[in-house]
Amino acid sequence: MARLEDLELAIESLPEDEYSQFRRWFLERDWEKWDREIEADSASGNLDFLVKEAQDAKAHRTLKAL
Fold first, then answer.
1. Under a CB-based contact definition with an 8 Å cutoff, are residues 54 and 62 in contact?
2. N or C end of the chain, less CB within 10 A?
3. What is the SS3 assignment for 8-57?
4. Contact present, 14 and 22 (Cβ < 8 Å)
5. How far apart are CA 35 and CA 42, in angstroms?
6. Structural domain boundaries, residue 25
């Protein structure tokens, strides 16, 4: 647990501009991970139910636009 605590202390001690850079880097890294998970789920068919739901809603004229 010391590593996590060390990271937390290091992050808290960053000047505002470096914290902003770190935050952008971390968020981008997080989104890239999310994108890879979505791509893997899509490729494996785990998201096919969403397409079916949309097709069914369109067929029943209950599809709602956001």
1. no
2. C
3. HHHHHCCCHHHHHHHHHHHHHHHHHHHHHHHHHHHHHCCCHHHHHHHHHH
4. yes
5. 10
6. 2-59
Q: What gap in Å lies between CA 63 and CA 9, rounded to an integer?
A: 49
**In the chain, how many domains are there?**
1
Q: Which two tokens stand for residue 9?
A: 């202390």
- Confirm if 19 and 11 have CB atoms less than 8 A apart: yes
Q: pLDDT tens for residues 11-54?
A: 999 999 999 999 999 999 999 999 999 999 999 999 999 999 99
Overall pTM > 0.70: no
